[in-house]
Amino acid sequence: MAPCFLFLITFTFTFFTTPPSVAGKQFPSEVKALVAPITKDVSTSLYTVALNTDKQFVLDLAGPLLWFPCPPKHPTVLCNSTACTAAGAFHPPRCPRIAAINKQPCTCTAYPVNPVTGTCSSDDLTFTSVTLSATDGKNPTTAVVVPRVVSSCAPKGLLSSLPAAAVGVAGLARSGLAVPSQLFSKLYLKKKFAICLPSSGADPGAAFFGTEPFYFLAAPPVDVAARLTYTTLLSNPRNPAYYLEVKGLAVNREAVPFLARMLEFDSLGHGGVLISTAAPYTTLTSHIYRPFLKAFAAATKAIPRAPKVKPFGLCLNSTALGSTRVGYGVPQIDVMLAGGRNWTIFGANSLKQVDKETACLAFVDGGPKAEQAMVIGGYQLENSFLLFDLARSRLGFLSTLLGIMTTCSNFNFTVNA
Question: Are 166 and 347 in contact (CB under 8 A)?
């Protein structure tokens, strides 16, 4: 029988009190992970998780909440509840708090944020149920219903500037109400999740919640979990995003000259290096961007230039570039991590093709007062595999799947019926 696609994550506004289940049965202990497809929206360069075949939720690595516009009638959460306390753990700094209204029962207010514009709102904290697909690491298997997932309502206007198909935002940050945290606690999964972002809108990448294996189609199929390099994840007490301990940058194996302490964050949570799926390209503060751009320009001085295309600071004539398995043959860029490890960025993730004859360095200047020293953006994450091991506060990464002859779009989302 022909294979059927199992793009299963559905949200319904039901106020369940039952435990997680599979077709009415208790959640099976042998299930180690869940999987969902990730799609790239080419018009915004954002990524969405398919919550069913016709609903997309923007994937936000730094978001502490799951949020979406609610129907007029929806369940609410009491303001003296544990969930309400968790919702207030990372209050958006530019979002004014709503004064408490003296009414009984007291219901909880959440503050959802648009990850692109930074616009915030206030609305009810609510409950929803989630249905995802379990996986054996090779294919989706059974549908799993997860009841009473805490989420936030939001006005429809908060969806402005997000992909046209997006109906909300799925926050994956290190917070109690982020999607991974709730799945871990409700399903007793190991505290790991992984993302593999696709490089085009044609075929999906994959998000996993739980533990390995994670097989991608190749010859033979490869479990990428066995090929990961690990580095420490730093915690910022004022921001639930995922920060890396970065010691420097190198171009063509030569260190870029700037003060390494610029990459650290201060006691107020400013600065540092974080990973973002909401920033389309890696952004550097001007004090780092300028020497980095100079270093890359020097390393590519033999390559003919092309007119600059905003927002990029350097563009090359791509007809003069050779091609390799990992993209254009240009000098590699290394993000130098603690412990002597490097996150190496090759041509497929360093140059952006902007027209038939022009490829630009896909890093942008965030200005001298950028909130973070460096934000590793989505383009640099495409066809990379990232495993967030929250129990051990570490990140497992494979900077490109292209080197092992596969891509993020090669997880097999079909099930033979």
Answer: no
Per-residue confidence of the chain (417 residues) as pLDDT tens digits?
444 444 444 444 443 344 565 544 456 667 899 999 999 999 999 999 977 556 789 999 999 999 999 999 999 999 999 999 999 999 998 888 887 666 678 899 999 999 999 999 999 999 988 888 999 999 999 888 889 999 999 999 999 999 999 999 999 999 999 999 999 999 999 999 999 999 999 999 999 999 999 999 998 899 999 999 999 999 988 899 999 999 999 999 999 999 989 999 887 888 999 999 999 999 999 999 999 999 999 999 999 999 999 999 999 999 999 999 999 999 999 999 998 999 999 999 999 999 999 999 999 999 999 999 999 999 999 999 999 999 999 999 999 999 999 999 999 998 754
pTM: 0.92
Strand order in the sheet with 342-345: 254-255, 246-251, 333-337, 342-345
